[in-house]
Design goal:
Blueprint: H1 3-14, E1 26-30, E2 33-40, E3 43-48, H2 54-60, E4 65-68, E5 72-75, H3 76-79, H4 82-92, E6 98-104, H5 106-120, E7 126-131, E8 137-138, H6 139-148, E9 151-158, E10 161-165, E11 176-177, E12 182-185, H7 203-215
Parallel strand pairs: 3-6, 6-7, 7-9, 9-12
Antiparallel strand pairs: 1-2, 2-3, 4-5, 8-11, 9-10
Length: about 220
């Protein structure tokens, strides 16, 4: 299977409650932040869980900037638990593997920050596959990520009205921005729920939409 398919399974289905522990080699937790690792098809995957409880929502809204010495202002709520995770994660990363970092929603915001820290730690072959990623940093961070980390960031929208759909990937607003230009997919919520933007954020829809994208990339 492709890296995209594997990342979508991990980030959009297996990492959510109840966590499919059999899918992961190891799970890490600091505060409300949870990530899991797995070697799939010769690739080392690091996957972060999206918002799953009240503490996660509090982190989502903690948008005051944290000033990182290398890539500038980033989202404090997403960065807060990352150093504690990395302390145990980095020694466990095996040498010689390509690394793919993924996540859905808050997990995507934490994931792209994790990938940036891995580059600073000396890992070379690191990439991101992000689903419904909120804006995790300001312009300096976004420019640094696009220069140093190959990646793709999916947003689920109505096919002919790109401004309508999942709103999470466009917040928080300026001066924050998306780590990568959005790659659009279209997977409709059922029935009348398609008229409510919150339902376009479903991890299940992202999983289904990226499987379709993997087979037939949209223009």
């Amino acid at each position: 299977m492709s890296d995209l398919t594997n990342a979508a399974k991990l980030a959009c289905t297996y990492i959510y409650f109840p966590i499919n522990k059999a899918a992961f080699s190891k799970l890490y937790q600091a505060g409300e932040t949870i990530c899991g690792t797995a070697i799939v098809d010769g690739v080392f995957h690091i996957c972060f869980q999206g918002t799953a409880n009240l503490h996660g929502w509090i982190a989502d809204f903690d948008v005051l900037p944290y000033r990182h010495p290398t890539f500038g202002n980033v989202h404090s709520g997403f960065y807060e638990n990352l150093p504690a995770i990395l302390k145990f994660l980095i020694p466990d990363i095996p040498a010689g593997f390509k690394i793919v970092v993924s996540g859905h929603s808050k997990g995507a915001g934490e994931g792209v920050l994790c990938a940036a820290e891995l580059i600073l730690a000396g890992f070379k072959e690191v990439s991101c596959i992000l689903f419904a990623c909120p804006n995790a940093g300001e312009k300096q961070f976004c420019s640094w990520v696009q220069k140093n980390i190959p990646g793709i960031s999916f947003r689920n929208v109505f096919k002919k009205l790109k401004w309508f759909g999942d709103l999470v990937p466009v917040v928080p607003e300026y001066p924050y921005g998306p780590p990568y230009p959005h790659t659009f997919i279209t997977r409709y919520p059922p029935g009348f729920l398609r008229f409510l933007p919150a339902h376009w954020h479903s991890s299940k829809l992202y999983y289904q939409g990226t499987l379709k994208f993997s087979a037939h990339p949209e223009k």
